[in-house]
Amino acid sequence: MDRVRLSKRLSRALRHDPGRVGLTLDAEGWASVDALCRALHVSRADVEDVVAHGSKARFELADGRIRARYGHSLPGHVALPAADPPDELFHGTSSPVVDAILRDGLLPGGRQYVHLSPDPDTALTVGARHGRPVVLVVDARAAAADGVVFRRGNDDTWLTDALDPRYLRRA
Predict the structure, then answer these.
(1) Distance CA 132, CA 167 (A)
(2) CA nearest neighbour of 57 among 116, 7, 91, 9
(3) Do residues 62 and 69 touch, judged by C-beta distance below 8 A?
(4) Domains of the chain and any CATH numbers
(5) Which of 7, 20, 111, 171 has the most CB atoms less than 10 A away?
(6) Residue 74: its pLDDT value, please?
(7) Phi-psi region of 130 (alpha: psi -120 to 50; beta: other; left: phi over 0)
């Protein structure tokens, strides 16, 4: 099976709409791998291949279970351990919403967490998905010192609940 196509199917089932395929997630976003395979009519080997070799570490496997690590639009939070962020992180967005973000801060919107990038190039790519991109610099060191909790989604994604505008500036 095409890895990208299956990754998108896994994302929809594990991040956004498990009920659509008859899947039930526990409070931390886990589902049985066997149940997922039955629901999507795919093999365990295909699922394991996407987890091991997908372009991003979006999913994790443990004890016969699977979950999406981040990007959920479902209620609740997927528990990920806190991590010490680098001094600066970056957020890519589109130009029409920059003034609102600089006024109100970064909020997760329809997701569980605010997504941040480790470098400006990744943030620029993310921002370009939504129109003319703008990159914001996050003073992660100051935010962490003030008690903001950061988590690693994967090598390209940092997560936090929300960020006050005092930690943000245009790149």
Answers:
(1) 22
(2) 7
(3) no
(4) 3-68 (1.10.10.970), 88-170 (3.20.170.30)
(5) 7
(6) 56
(7) alpha
DSSP code, position 85: P
Q: How far apart are the first and last CA of the chain?
A: 41
pTM of the model: 0.66
Return the pLDDT at 111.
77
What per-residue confidence (pLDDT) applies to 57?
75
Q: Which residue has the tokens 């390209």?
A: 156
Q: Give 139's strand partners.
A: 88
Q: For residue 33, what pLDDT is reported?
A: 94
**CA distances to 50, 82, 111, 170, 171 from 93, in Å:** 28, 24, 15, 11, 12
Contacts of 143 (CB under 8 A, 6+ apart): 85, 150, 160, 163, 164, 167
CA geometry: angle 6, 38, 24, nearest 5 deg: 90
**What span, in angstroms and rounded, lies between the C-alpha atoms of 137 and 88?**
7
Mean pLDDT, consecutive 10-residue stretches, the chain (171 aa), reads 86 86 85 93 93 81 86 61 95 94 91 90 90 95 97 87 96 92
